[in-house]
Structure formats: structure tokens, C-alpha cells
Fold this sequence. Notes:
It contains 13 helices and twelve strands. It is of the alpha/beta class. It holds the Pfam family ApbA.
Amino acid sequence: MKIAIIGAGAMGSLFGGLLARTCQPILYDLNQAHVDAMRAHGLRMSFSGQDEIAEVTATSDPSAVPAMDAVILFVKSPHTRAALLDGLQRAITPDTQVISLQNGLGNIEVMRELLAPAQIVQGFSTLTSDLVGPGHIHVTCDLNLHTAMWPLTHQPDARLQELCQLMNQAGLQTVISDQVERDVWMKLLVNASLNSLCAITRQNVGHVVDHPGTRRILESIVYETADIANAKGLGISRQAALQHVLHVAEKTRGHVPSMATDVFNRRPTEIEAINGAIVRAGQALHIPAPATEWAAHLVRCLENYDHWAA
């Protein structure tokens, strides 16, 4: 099966590196130093106490990605449209399945504008990884955390089943599940609370959960998001929501979310697709989400650090 990873940062590299155990994925990314390092030395994946070198095909040239059976998107939400239009028409044919394992809300809506419904697969993953340097990732989670996928047609075909099988053989615990929308909101709970607070405090997950002040804010964000998800009919109680976030946090204590590294490196974050999207969903349902909104405002402020600090 011909598979391309579009957006081979920390998470895309993790999936691409593990899939290299069972197939030969192409990793596409615009970080030239990272691509060059993977080409020269392979992808170094550091797990707890051991390293694994994955021999992968990496490129920053979209014309070097031929027609694919499956394309897995890991680009940041603001870049979804550009990624699908960035010369990747050769890779994405009418027969290509495009799987979004991205953070936040709104990616599927962009895909609907550019692709046929039969091509689109919504998914999510609770795995975490940090990009240590060019060609090197640190896997910051238990690989037993799972990944799920579900096609927009609600009819999983043989290709999706084959991809799921390859992912499981590679060590990625993957299921085809019609509960993906609920799962996406379960991941939103994690992203909206942990990612935003790690970005604001510039701390890892463990520090945010352990500190009593950030823990209180985390709980407020989780409860607000759960209330909105419940109003959408997704059946996520406050208790279940908090239990889920704390479970993920315990599995990823040393992780520094990409939103925090984006703030540190003064890059745009995914705050609009995560906290911003939750606030907008709450407004549509007349459910306030003040803690979630405050966190969004603070991250936006940090995104514009150079401007207001001057």
C-alpha cells in the first residue's frame, strides 16, 4: 500500500517511522533540515531507554510524491488548505483516501471543499511525540494509546481496513470506529486544557497537572468543553472528561505540546482550531466558556509577543 505522511513533524514522523516497519511511506515536510537529516541518517525515534532508526523516504518537493493509496494529514490546522493545494494534486488522485489525524475542529470542513466525500476519513490519535532536532523525535507517550478512523461515507472499505491492519502491525493501536466525532471532542478536552496551559506557562504536561493553580484552570476548561460536547449530544460527562484528561496526562507527563513549542519559537499556533473553536461552538449553543476563552486570549497574546513587547 502506498502511503504518504503530509506534515512530518513530531507526530507525522512518529507515524511514518513506525509505519516503516511494515511498508515504505513517504514523509513530506517543508522543514528542509529535518528532511535532509532523515535522508542522510534515517529517522531516529527515542523511546524510553532505547532508540530505533527508521529508514524512510523523506522529501520537501511535492512533485516527488507520486499517486498514493492513502495520504495521512498531520499539518497544523491553519495549513490544511495549503497542504492539499501545494502541488500535491499528483499524490492525491480521485482514488486516494485522505485521513485527517490533525488537532482541532474545522479540518474536515476544508477537506469537504476540496475532495469528494468518499475520499475523506476523519480520525484522531492520543499519541504524543516531540521533535528533538532534525531527524530525531522523542516518543513521549505509551504506545498503547489509541488511534481511530471513520470515513465520511460511514462505509469503511477494504483500503481503509488494509491501512488499519498495517498501522496495527507497525505498533500503532488503531481501530475503525463510528465514534470518531466523540473521540475528536475527547481529544479536544486534552488539547484545550493541557496544550494551552503548557503554552502559556511554558511547562510540560506534568508540571501543569501538578501545580494547584494551573490544575484549577485545567478543570474549568475541561468542564466547559464537556458541557458543550454534551449539548451537542456526544454524551461526555464532566467526571468522564476530567478522568480522561488526567489519564492522558499521566501517560504523557514529560511531553511538551506543539502549541508550547510554537509559542517558544514564535510560530502561529492552532489555538483557533482548538480553544477558539470550542468557544464558538459554545456561543452557538448559548453556553459560556470563560476559562477556555481566557486561555485562547493569552495564547493569542503570546503569538504576537514581538509586536506588543516592542
